[in-house]
Write a structure and sequence with these properties.
About 30% of the residues lie in helices and about 20% in strands. The longest helix has 21 residues. The chain is globular and about 60 Å long. A hairpin with a 3-residue loop joins strand 3 and strand 4. The strands form two sheets. The chain has an eight-stranded antiparallel beta sheet. Strands 9-10 form a two-stranded antiparallel ribbon. It is α+β, with helices and mostly antiparallel strands and about 270 residues long. The protein has eight helices and ten strands. Bound molecules: zinc ion. The site of zinc ion (ZN) has 7 residues, from loops. The site of zinc ion has 7 residues, from loops.
Length: about 270
């Protein structure tokens, strides 16, 4: 059970893609793999121009000249950190270090860090559902995939082939926002409700990219300005003991290996939506 750690959600990966592009794109980038696990890949991209970065759900792509695409998935333990030059001497399991004259980025602990062709990238993206942060996302594909699922809506929302980029926080909060219990069968979600959930996710994830954190509450309900909300005050049910709206103890349970959260007063379990 992944009780304490959280996989970064899509907004974090899109933020990384933008920050990496802002620091490194358009010029040759020095690349190395001090740990050695990505030594061959790093040698191939070393001193090549980073042309662009891209994110699709929780997958990050760094596109270097010569059709060389670094595919990164942070998974549960991965971090990608920005450091000013001069960079400290590499220590520990440093998978990939990217450097310009001014700035460097260190990647550690990622589930995936591999070098692909553009066709390899396309194969990964083809397996993923639409990503609500992307302007080219097609909500029809998500709806069609959802129709084929026989699981609960709580499970379907985390299925990256239905929607890309949704993690545990956004799942808990989008369901709360619409009064839906995570165990409601997917077949009970009708089209207008799904359209409302999709619109909520688009707005919330894009806001997450901009603000670099997840705030799903209406600050008026807390009585503080948005900028002053603590992490606990920023969500209605996720990792909370009591529902922020009504004070009912939040119900937490294992749903396919991940914690699910619900306020069973605001999200009645047996109501057909
Ligand atoms: Zn409640």
């Amino acid at each position: 059970m992944r009780a304490c750690l959280a996989v970064p959600e899509g907004h974090t990966i899109h933020r990384l893609a933008r920050d990496l592009a802002g620091d490194l794109a358009g010029s040759p980038v020095r690349a190395s793999s001090p740990q050695g696990r990505f030594a061959a890949g790093a040698a191939l991209i070393d001193d090549r121009v980073l042309e662009r970065t891209d994110a699709h759900g929780k997958h990050l792509f760094l596109e270097h000249e010569g059709d060389l695409v670094v595919h990164i998935h942070l998974g549960l333990y991965g971090t990608f950190r920005r450091l000013p030059q001069p960079m400290p001497a590499p220590i520990g399991a440093l998978r990939l270090r990217l450097e310009s004259e001014r700035i460097g980025w260190d990647l550690r602990g990622a589930t995936a860090c591999e070098l692909l062709t553009p066709a390899g990238k396309a194969l990964i993206v083809a397996r993923l559902g639409p990503d609500p942060i992307r302007r080219d996302a097609d909500p029809e594909r998500a709806w069609a995939a959802l129709r084929r699922r026989r699981s609960s809506i709580g499970q379907a929302l985390m299925d990256q082939a239905v929607l890309a980029g949704i993690g545990n926080v956004y799942r808990a909060e989008v369901l709360f926002a619409h009064g839906i219990h995570p165990l409601v069968p997917t077949r009970d979600i009708d089209r207008p409700l799904w359209d409302a959930m999709w619109a909520w996710l688009v707005a919330a994830l894009r806001r997450g990219v901009k603000e670099r954190r997840i705030v799903t509450v209406d600050p008026k309900e807390v009585g503080k300005p948005r900028s002053r909300l603590s992490v606990a005050e920023s969500r209605y049910v996720y990792r909370r003991e009591h529902c922020l709206r009504c004070g009912t103890p939040v119900c937490r349970f294992d749903l396919a290996g991940r914690w699910a959260y619900a306020c069973e007063r605001c999200q009645p379990p047996y109501r057909v939506v």
